[in-house]
Write a structure and sequence with these properties.
The protein is an alpha+beta fold and 379 residues long. Helices cover 25% and strands 26% of the residues.
């Protein structure tokens, strides 16, 4: 039976209704929605935990998916300017077949340091690849470029480090304890300006001064015995759209900053984009399933999940992006996997998570001007 996820039209209706509220009511409504597990997340899959660290000193952070008992991993790097760690290890021809966490981080290449904090957290609990001389936690990671987003009073030298990665693991444990004796109500992971999405920006093809706020998003799709969840940090150079209608939710704005431009239409009409340095835009994410998959099948799941980016980001996978998606499988569901169905679910979950990231983002004042949210610019 297909998942009863909210329809895109229902989300758009809720979005429009929000404009009729006071700004404080909008904030309160968003917070209550963020605490509502109806949207679902990777954390709803048994054996997986999601946590965020968000810096108080600038708009950056990191997010982690913990798989303490190990999960079969795969990856597909589709963008032309990626920043990653441990992706070669995930090749189906290589030895190690399970990962123990996946990290997404801001801070550009500096943010890869946060993975060492995740390793330390796992090592303290003896979780990792057993070597006979101690365990080695396997923690693939990907980063996005959020260095330009600095507010007045921020410390621009702050980037996610080992302490940030460790703190994200602690948050994951708080949100969803690992032991049954500690179990209580599970807290759904936050969306919007949190974790690796704290400094994310979208719609930068015509300059940062005409862009909008990106963010972190989650989704879960369930069909029959299978679950596929997605966690996405959306920092695309392109616009984020409604996959069902093509409506632009957030992206490049007109020169006066008051309306959405539609970057693809503008490019096709002959408008010249602003020169943007490669690697300064990236959407990164994790898709996870309870299905039993091999490493080759996990890679295929990651490849298909990129279709979700193509449906919700326009243009996607550009030479200016470093789009990377990891896939992990807990192998808890023993039913023979239907790979066609699972790949469709992965693409859908990724698209939903990308839109979720944008609809829950908040506008921010930066040194380069105000970056509005989708809530503020949709008519």
């Amino acid at each position: 039976m297909a998942s009863h996820q909210p329809r895109w039209q229902d989300r758009a209706g809720a979005l429009i209704k929000g404009f009729q509220m006071t700004s404080q009511n909008i904030v309160n409504t968003r917070l209550s929605q963020r605490a509502n597990p109806h949207y679902g997340s990777i954390a709803d899959i048994a054996g997986l935990h999601v946590g965020h660290f968000t810096s108080s000193q600038r708009l950056t952070g990191c997010s982690v998916v913990l798989a303490p008992q190990g999960a079969v991993g795969g990856v597909d790097v589709r963008g032309a300017a990626p920043g990653t760690r441990e992706t070669d290890l995930l090749d189906p021809s290589n030895l190690v077949d399970k990962v123990h966490a996946v990290l997404l981080s801001g801070g550009s290449a500096f943010g890869l340091d946060a993975a060492s904090g995740v390793m330390r957290w796992l090592d303290e609990r003896s979780l990792g690849f057993q070597t006979g001389h101690g365990c080695v936690p396997i923690v693939p990671a990907a980063v996005l470029f959020d260095l330009p987003l600095v507010r007045e009073g921020d410390n621009a030298k702050i980037r996610p480090d080992a302490a940030a990665g460790y703190a994200a693991c602690e948050d994951a444990l708080y949100q969803k304890p690992m032991t049954a004796s500690a179990m209580r109500s599970v807290v759904p992971p936050m969306s919007g300006n949190v974790g690796a999405g704290a400094g994310a920006v979208v719609g930068k093809l015509f300059g940062l001064n005409r862009a909008m706020k990106g963010g972190m998003g989650h989704a879960l799709v369930k069909v029959g015995p299978w679950q596929v969840g997605a966690m996405v940090a959306c920092n695309a150079v392109g616009d984020v759209i409604d996959p069902a209608t093509g409506q632009v939710f957030a992206g490049a704005r007109t020169a006066d900053g008051t309306r959405l431009l539609n970057s693809q239409q503008a490019l096709l009409a002959g408008q010249s984009s602003a020169i943007t340095m490669a690697g300064t835009n990236t959407s990164i994410g994790v898709v996870a399933t309870n299905a039993t998959l091999s490493k080759a099948q996990a890679k295929r799941l990651a490849m298909s999940a990129h279709d979700g980016f193509a449906r919700s980001i326009r243009p996607a996978h550009t030479t200016l992006d470093g789009d990377t998606l990891f896939a992990i499988a807990t192998c808890a569901e023993s039913t023979e996997p239907d790979m066609l169905l699972l790949t469709v679910m992965a693409a859908e979950a990724t698209a939903q998570a990308t839109v979720n990231a944008i609809l829950f983002a908040n506008g921010v004042h930066s040194l380069k001007g105000y970056l509005p949210s989708a809530m503020e610019l949709n008519p």
